[in-house]
Structure formats: structure tokens, C-alpha cells
Recover the amino acids of this structure.
């Protein structure tokens, strides 16, 4: 039986939520991300901001140059996650399998629940109607024979659109004379390579498949297949245990060259990483430290010396890795756990055999937090949970940077 896959994508999700909750923002060029005086990028923007050239992923200062009259806001991820849960509850009720791509985006397998294209079309209309009536937001929906085609279809009539692509022939006919970036996985850098080789459109890819493969290797083989409309991937529900790593990183508003301060920041990152792993019941036995210097050069250091993945142990190993890198101004720092496995599969270490080990880990964490409180006059009592929120973490680190002894 041929697949029937629906791709649903919210329209300017973060901005739309904010406009729903504050109608005075409607019709204005609303830009969600960093503020103009900060470092960072545009997370999303309203459709009213797009005629000015503002786009997701753009440097915030470029966005301000293009649209100084815009309304700039930090994202409220707690709010967006709550709305996302409501959205996915609606969407997933119509599918035998659902693959969440982001807070505001998902693939739904309608092959069995719909059974035919007319029913799939009615399900799509129902999803759009319920999303608007129950959540107060619009979405764009594509229905197609494959995941690539469904995603392409959902983009075709944005915002608040619907489009369907029934066959590989329909897909190819739609995109054949469009730029190569219309294809899934072809980003700016890949497109630049293809353009440099004289391959500008999907038609060019189809005419020169061997050249694409020589240029891009394995990715090139994938691109030549989807340029022919071939994509046999199934909708795969996300399972936390299949994650390859769990991490947290942050960008400083001003470059940091004080490595003692960086050690203090690593305490907060270690807490956040531990919390994320515990939430999904995963244990990590490897650790990676990521750093981006002021000149945008990035380095990583990894270790398999992590015998415990509590916050204190993560911090200790991260500090050891930090000591291995060149000491010059740093723009971004991050920590991630790797080699993940469900908690019940964790192998006991020698230290696990001692009853007071957990107490020792808690005491080590308490000492780290006491040190931060003493140096920066912070009060973590009853407030640790808030540190796991992205905006609170960034604000805390910026406060620490400005008040470091």
C-alpha cells in the first residue's frame, strides 16, 4: 500500500503565539530572538517582518539594520512548549505514527487511518480547523506520498495553506526548474558547492547525477534520489533513548577570557545537562566540551572518563577538558553527554558499591553552589528548577559575568 504522509508546520510559531496573547502586536514586524544590542540570531519573525528581508537564523544586528522599527522580544520557551504539547495532542490523534521534528512541526502517517486521498484531505482540513479553533493559531499542511514531498507541500502555500503531492511525477514536475535548495538537506553550503559546479536547478541534478555524487559523496547519492522523487523513509516516532547526545550551550554577550569564570559557568551547564538526561531516563558515559573562540574558530574536547553523570562529576570532567584548550577569549561554551543508554542499563562502577556515594555527590554539588552564591551573591534555594529554563540560564550567566569578582 502506498504511503500517505501529512506534514504539519505552524506559521511563524513563536511570533504567532505572542500575537495571539497580545493582539496589539498583530500586523507589526515582530522579531523573536536576541535583542538588537545583544549577540544572537533571529529565532523567528512574523510575516510582517519578512518584506524587510528579516529571516530566521539571521544575525540580530543585521535584522535591526533591515528593520529598526520592528518589535524585538526574547523567546518564552516555557510558553511555546506548553502550546506545543497541545498541538501535538491534536495532531497525533489522527495518525498511526507521528514523528515530531520540532515544537511546531511533525510528520503524521495517515496510510492506515485515512486509507485514501480524499479521507487524508479531510483529516488535513480537520487538523487545520482544530488548530485554529482550539489553540488560536494557523498551520500549513502538506499531504503527499513521501516525507520529502509532504514537507515540500506544506511550504507551498504558506501561511495557512494546504497542498498535496500524490506521486513522484507530480513532485518532480513541481520543483524541476527550482533552485537546488528546494530539496531536503540541501542547505546554503551544499547549494554553494553545487552552484560552483554549474548545477543550479533540480533539472541540472537530474541531468548530471554522477557529477553530484562525485562532488558530495553519500549526500550526493541521497540528493540525486530525491531529485527523482524517490524517498521511501517511514514516519519514525521519536524515542529519547535513541538520542546520540544531550547537551547545553550558551553564547556570551561579550567574549570571556577569565577561565575561572568559565569554570563557574560550567557548574550551571552541568546542572542543566544532568536535568535533561534524568528527565528522559538516560545515562551518559562520555562527555564533550565545545568552545567557540572570539574569531569563530571552534574546538571540542571529549572524554570517556565519566564514571558518574551527576552534575558535580560532569563539572569536574568538563573543567579537566577546559584546562586542555588554548586560553584566549571565548564566545560560546557548551557541554554534552554522549554514549547514552537507558538508566537501567548503566554498569555499576566501583564507587557505586558504597552507600554514601550519592551523599558524596550531593555534597560536592552543594559545595559548588555555595561557591557560586558566595562569589556572585546568588540564592539558589528553591530556584534551581528555574535555571533549566533557557532565558533564566542566560540571564543568570550575564549577571555573573557583570558581577564576577
Amino acid at each position: 500500500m502506498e504511503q500517505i504522509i501529512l506534514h504539519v508546520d505552524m506559521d511563524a510559531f513563536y511570533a504567532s503565539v505572542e500575537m495571539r496573547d497580545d493582539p496589539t502586536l498583530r500586523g507589526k514586524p515582530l522579531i523573536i530572538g536576541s535583542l538588537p544590542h545583544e549577540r544572537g540570531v533571529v529565532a523567528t519573525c512574523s510575516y510582517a517582518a519578512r518584506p524587510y528581508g528579516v529571516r530566521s537564523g539571521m544575525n540580530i544586528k543585521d535584522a535591526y539594520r533591515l528593520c529598526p522599527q520592528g518589535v524585538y522580544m526574547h523567546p518564552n520557551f516555557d510558553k511555546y512548549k506548553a502550546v506545543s504539547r497541545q498541538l501535538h495532542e491534536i495532531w497525533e490523534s489522527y495518525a498511526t505514527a507521528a514523528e515530531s521534528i520540532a515544537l511546531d512541526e511533525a510528520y503524521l502517517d495517515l496510510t492506515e487511518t485515512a486509507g485514501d486521498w480524499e479521507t487524508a484531505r479531510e483529516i488535513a482540513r480537520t487538523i487545520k480547523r482544530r488548530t485554529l479553533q482550539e489553540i488560536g493559531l494557523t498551520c500549513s499542511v502538506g499531504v503527499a506520498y513521501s516525507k520529502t514531498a509532504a514537507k515540500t507541500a506544506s511550504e507551498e502555500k504558506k501561511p495557512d495553506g494546504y497542498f498535496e503531492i500524490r506521486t513522484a511525477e507530480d513532485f518532480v514536475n513541481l520543483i524541476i526548474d527550482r533552485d537546488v535548495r528546494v530539496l531536503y538537506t540541501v542547505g546554503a553550503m551544499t547549494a554553494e558547492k553545487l552552484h560552483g559546479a554549474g548545477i543550479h536547478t533540480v533539472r541540472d541534478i537530474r541531468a548530471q547525477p554522477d557529477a553530484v555524487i562525485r562532488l558530495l559523496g553519500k549526500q550526493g547519492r541521497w540528493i540525486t534520489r530525491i531529485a527523482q522523487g524517490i524517498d521511501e523513509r517511514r514516519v519514525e516516532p521519536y524515542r529519547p533513548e535513541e538520542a546520540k547526545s544531550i547537551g547545553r550551550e550558551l553564547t556570551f554577550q561579550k567574549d570571556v577570557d577569565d577561565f575561572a569564570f568559565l569554570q563557574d559557568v560550567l557548574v550551571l551547564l552541568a546542572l542543566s545537562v544532568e536535568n535533561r538526561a534524568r528527565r528522559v531516563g538516560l545515562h551518559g558515559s562520555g562527555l564533550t566540551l565545545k568552545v567557540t573562540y572570539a574569531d569563530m574558530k571552534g574546538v571540542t574536547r571529549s572524554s570517556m572518563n565519566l564514571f558518574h553523570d551527576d552534575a558535580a562529576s560532569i563539572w569536574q570532567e568538563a573543567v579537566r577538558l577546559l584546562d586542555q584548550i588554548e586560553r584566549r577569549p571565548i564566545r560560546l561554551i557548551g557541554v554534552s553527554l554522549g554514549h547514552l543508554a537507558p538508566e537501567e542499563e548503566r554498569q555499576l562502577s566501583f564507587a557505586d558499591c558504597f552507600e554514601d556515594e550519592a551523599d558524596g555527590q550531593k555534597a560536592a554539588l552543594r559545595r559548588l553552589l555555595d561557591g557560586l552564591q558566595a562569589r556572585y551573591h546568588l540564592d539558589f534555594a528553591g530556584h534551581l528548577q528555574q535555571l533549566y529554563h533557557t532565558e533564566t540560564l542566560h540571564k543568570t550567566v550575564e549577571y555573573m559575568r557583570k558581577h564576577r569578582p
